[in-house]
Amino acid sequence: MSNSPVLEIPAFDGRALIDGKRTHAKDGTVFDCVSPVDGRVLTQVARCGQADVDAAVVAARTAFEDKRWRGLPPAQRKRVMIRFADLLMQHRDQLALTETLDMGKPVKYARAVDVASASNCIRWYGEAVDKRYDEIAPTPDTALALITQEPVGVVGVIVPWNYPMIMAAWKIAPALAVGNSVVLKPSEKSPLTALRMAELALEAGIPAGVFNVVTGYGPEAGSPLALHMDVDCIAFTGSTRVGKQIHVMAGQSNLKRAWTELGGKSPNIVFADCPDLDRAVEAAVGSIFFNQGESCNAPSRLFVEASIKDQFLEKALKLVPAYAPANPLLPETIMGALVDQIQMNTVLRYIASGKSEGAKLLAGGEQALIDTGGCYVQPTIFDGVTSDMTIAREEIFGPVLSVLSFTDAADVVRQANASVYGLQAAVWTRDLNKAHGVARALRAGTVHVNQYDEDDITVPFGGFKQSGVGRDKSMHAFDKYTETKTTWIRIDSPV
Q: Which of 248, 281, 297, 378 is least surrounded by Cβ atoms within 10 Å, i.e. has the fewest?
């Protein structure tokens, strides 16, 4: 690739991590970990199956039952979690480089966003765990009713390839903090940082067997984890199609808890009275093209009030050239490679469907940097999109923006809610009544007002409808990984 920085690519260890030890798959099979940056094979990764999942679950169950982790006082678990977070930051450059080579995102964002956010998440839940209190119910004087939260047991975690470290941290941090054992299955498209995170967890003091990582494909490693009779909870982030299968598997096995954060087709609504049109344009363009559009909460449906649509698009098109794909290893790059050839071809098929169904292509629409061997697609904008078009209904997971118009609040709420998804949304208006009214009417887990995607670990993340169940982040996430127990004590008072 032209302008490639001269970098010493580390020797990656693709073995799974089970019971504190790096290990090959029991049948010895592997798969190639291919970088979307330039097509090089980074390493071979253990292709785990049922036997490996069984071994990881046994290790996790053993660790849970002998209380080597959950038996520690919360303050002690806190110190270990904070040490874990510190180690992530100490290895920030290595982790960022690994993430970029593995899944294609710009290294500047891998370092500033992904590693930092994962570390902050683990630190926050570590800090929070010794500040949680149980309850005493207001019973009659003849009884004392204690309401306590206990760790659920063995937690299976399956995470996607778009934010490998962040998505893992959102789940493993609250699960580990309250004393569970974890078996993590990262995506086969981006498994390397999960393995390194598990090594750093051991170095921080999390005991062997408490945090295990099995690598491999969904049907071979993910399904056995979701179906396992000795897994008490399964937490999944990924597509709605697979999420539905996870819920079925949970019911087919031991009725384990299933928490799923799934797809999105988030509406970004700009009214004519938007208080800062330039800011709205920058947010609309920057948010859809960030991470190459590979974000479940990307505002992929842009609704602009008809009277300002031409002005809005004129401003937006001037920003598009800055997002031209480039080598993600260069520090100035802001849009890198899609995760692999399969995803690139999927995005290109959606672009072709937009053209064939009558949408007007305003920018992009083609593969980029073909001679690099990598997986790059131009930032793409379609105008004249209607809600019945495929590109307006289905999650593309790529740098493709669909622009629709509307005439009034009732019209845009109807269009925005006409989706199977309900993850996020945004409203841009200077009218406080309109902002509140539209926000209440939108069926979404998060509604942004006069911004998009501002975020904090203290607020929950999740969606309505087929965007999944349960919430990541905030204190609410603890609820997913604990059981509520009532202990009723009769008191025969002598007084």
A: 248
